[in-house]
Amino acid sequence: MKYMMFVCTDTEPDTDKAAEPDIEVWVSDNDARGRRLEGSALAPTSAATTVRVRDGRLLVSDGPFTETKEVIVGYDLLECADLDEAIEVARAHPMARAGRLELRPLADLND
């Protein structure tokens, strides 16, 4: 099953002083196991463009539309047997402590 893992900042990161996992080790381990199909950091929110259509009019604005302190800073597309495995993959990601990770299964549009 494929999961999109959104990598987000958080206003309340973990305060544990233990060393955080190394992102390069996490990437190479999950790539080697075939659980990480692709992933990337995103450009800063200052480079974002928001597109909406209202009453047939195109509205384009700079930056994210939402007023939030937490932002998506990257993503990983995962291939896991089930949600439990996806949670274990996310648990080992450094941003599980420094930020937060949102796991969302890809929808099957053929149903």
UniProtKB/TrEMBL annotation:
Residue span, YCII-related domain: 8-108
SUPFAM superfamilies listed in its UniProt record: Dimeric alpha+beta barrel (SSF54909)
Domain of life from the UniProt record: Bacteria
One Pfam family per UniProt: YCII
Sequence similarity: Belongs to the YciI family.
Protein name listed in UniProt: YCII-related domain-containing protein
Organism name: Nonomuraea dietziae
